[in-house]
Write a structure and sequence with these properties.
Blueprint lengths: L25 E7 L3 H12 L8 E7 L7 H8 L4 E5 L6 H11 L4 E4 L5 E2 L3 H11 L5 E9 L5 E4 L8 E2 L3 H7 L8 E4 H7 L10 H10 L4 E12 L5 H8 L1 H13 L5 H26 L5 H14 L3 H8 L1
Parallel strand pairs: 1-2, 1-4, 2-3, 6-10
Antiparallel strand pairs: 4-9, 5-10, 6-7, 6-9, 8-10
Length: 319
């Protein structure tokens, strides 16, 4: 993908690590914001698989938390292995990600949010997967969904029977988000080539990033369930659903990716994507209509039907 002029970019492109730098294989970048009560578990899940400082660096980057003290958690539970960076002011989550990514030196970057975890074997399995498929720009595994108490609430499915490169990954991601952030590993040179997360997005920035990667590189998958994604009322994703901004961001993701995705993909899948978008908005409508005005109900209902009309959707709108 050719970059636009620098002043038109909405993301940063990482500078390469200097050649003389001694680099670990892994950079574990853990962004946090007001989630220190989960950070102990996150760190424990990584440190249980610690490969040592020559092979793994661990960085916690905090977006100026105001309700807790993640630095104290790092000092107490980090075993002297975790670098802590605190923003001088709140910069927003994408710019917070950038700070951690710029500080990284590893060949493989694993961004693990401060309320998520990994299961035993994550790092050895993902390293082997990328070794087996050197052309891949990234690789992911399956995830467990957990609640605020760590209880399992669901699991991501298998995209293919065999492990390895997913041949139609771009087409899959173009219509739907399949990859949770704690399950994804990205080669640093990918961020050095096509850039990092898009600053225009206050949520779903990971989805757009994965689409951009799939538009430029093969992506490999493992069917092992090695990541844990926590969903709770106070996390950033849930808050965007509560305030309704997720709907606008969902459309913005589509607008952004259509600027660079191959025309054969957009033309082939536009109707399938419109159906998925109708289902996404319908889910929000059904969960929030009890607090909506009549005008908002009509506006959202019209939008849903403009994307896709079926008896199933009509029934769920009226039910």
């Amino acid at each position: 993908m050719m970059h636009k002029k620098t002043e038109e970019l909405h993301f940063i492109v990482l500078d390469p690590v200097p050649l003389e730098t001694k680099r670990p294989l892994w950079s574990i970048v853990i962004p946090t914001y007001n989630c220190a009560h989960y950070l102990k578990e996150t760190l424990a899940s990584v440190l249980a698989q610690d490969l040592g400082p020559e092979h793994m660096e661990i960085i916690v980057v905090d977006d100026h938390s105001t309700q807790d003290d993640p630095e104290a958690v790092v000092q107490h539970y980090g075993e002297g292995r975790v670098k802590f960076i605190r923003q001088e002011k709140n910069v927003g989550k994408v710019r917070n990600y950038e700070t951690g990514l710029k500080a990284s030196k590893g060949n493989y970057i694993h961004q693990l949010h401060g309320d998520d975890m990994v299961r035993p074997g994550f790092y050895t399995t993902m390293a082997q997967l990328l070794k087996d498929h050197p052309d891949a720009g990234a690789a992911f595994c399956r995830s467990l969904y957990i609640d605020d108490q760590g209880r399992w609430t669901g699991m991501t499915g298998m995209l293919q029977a065999e492990e390895g490169i997913v041949p139609d990954m771009l087409a899959k991601l173009y219509t739907e988000q399949y990859i949770q952030t704690p399950s994804m590993v990205v080669k640093r040179d990918v961020y050095e080539t096509i850039g990092t997360f898009d600053r225009r997005l206050n949520c779903m920035e990971d989805w757009e990033m994965w689409i951009r990667i799939a538009n430029n590189y093969p992506i490999a998958s493992s069917n092992q369930v090695l990541a844990l994604y926590r969903s709770h009322e106070s996390n950033a994703t849930q808050q965007t659903f509560q305030d309704g901004s997720a709907l606008q961001t969902h459309q913005l993701v589509f607008n952004i990716v259509d600027e660079y995705t191959y025309a054969e993909i957009t033309n082939k899948l536009k109707h399938q994507r419109a159906k998925k978008q109708a289902e996404f908005w319908l889910e929000y409508y059904r969960s929030s209509r009890h607090v909506m005005s009549r005008a908002d109900k009509l506006r959202i209902g019209r939008f849903i039907l403009s994307k896709h009309i079926s008896l199933k959707i009509l029934y769920r709108l009226l039910k």
